[in-house]
Amino acid sequence: MKAFKISEKIFLNHDAKVVWDTISSPCALELFHPFCQANSVLNWDEIKIDKLVYLNGSVYIREFSAWKPKKGFELNIGKKNGKKSKVQWEIHATDKGSEIKISVLPYRSNKVSKLLYPLANLFIIKPRLKTYLKSVLLGLRYYLDHNKTVEKNQFGTHPWFS
Q: Are 32 and 143 in contact (CB under 8 A)?
């Protein structure tokens, strides 16, 4: 199943601490996620859980499973009682700023047979998730560079989330 993991990364002209402070703050997605309508905290104590409402009205719950200050975090995301995808955010400090990488191991939908899933992944899931991840990372860069909230669909619409 690791073969279906999709990742994107981007270089940021910002210190790893600044990146961490941004992505780890409650409701952070409202600042830089171009497909986010709302991001609200359900629990932000020892166990961190929040809710992400996409522009198309879909509601996803993010349950954080690992929290590594200035390094990143891991979470499971999906509909409240649905299947969950695994997501990892990683920050790597460099001499001139930092690199951030988001990796997604998407859940396997029952709408696609096991036999056809590799093709669906290659031609549909992977390209759309890569576009999605690029938009999120561009949103983060824009927010950090300009200190301005990203506009809805700022980098184009997305068929799953806009």
A: yes
